[in-house]
Amino acid sequence: MSSISHVADLDYFYGFGYDQSTDDYLVVSMSSPYHTKSYLEFFSLRAYKWKQYPTHINYSNSTEDDRKAGSLFNGAIHWIASRCDLQEDVIVAFDLIERKLLHMHLPDQFEIDYYCGLWVFREFLSLWNMDKDTVEIWVMKEYKVHSSWTKTHVLPIIDAIPANYFYPLCCTKSGDIVGTYGYFKLMKYNDVGQLLGCCSYFNNQYGFQVAMYTESLLSLPGDTQEEE
């Protein structure tokens, strides 16, 4: 159980995903004013309008981290959040097809900390947690089955940088882990924690966040440009 934090009495979560059943893209936003139920709405690019989704639970940010963009996996957008009615940290997911919220419990031995997060690792929904100079990786081998949570890696971050600035983003086909160092650099480690490469992606003193995306030749709904 972790303490619930609030920034300006408002926690917010957001994400972007595709509903294959209606060929529609959705922008999802969920905000949680202090001591009130969360407010969720989504913007349909096909209908070109916002719709509200009623919620009866207040979800707040668990980690005090400002990276609240959801992880897209299996047709849903996922966040780590505190479920305030249960005083419990959970994974909250918004199903883009059924347009409903659901939640899943974290692994029994996983401890929420400031430096932890949710991502997709080797085609599994996964959690990571930093502890000094070590990163732990957990994967849910069977989606929505709590007993399938498995700790797959405990990696010493070698060569290094302060580990608490490293945020895993994705895994390459060869198994290397790519992540950000602060808001300025991309780092790549192999599966035993050795640094393989580093490059800067932003030179402003305030930095910038990185998001993963998949390229596509498909047009967005409402695109009237004729195909050549």
From TrEMBL:
Superkingdom in the source lineage: Eukaryota
Residue ranges annotated for the F-box associated beta-propeller type domain, each copy included: 14-182
Pfam annotation, one family: FBA_3
InterPro entries, sorted: F-box-assoc_dom_typ3 (IPR013187), F-box-assoc_interact_dom (IPR017451), F-box_domain (IPR052361)
Name of this protein: F-box associated beta-propeller type 3 domain-containing protein
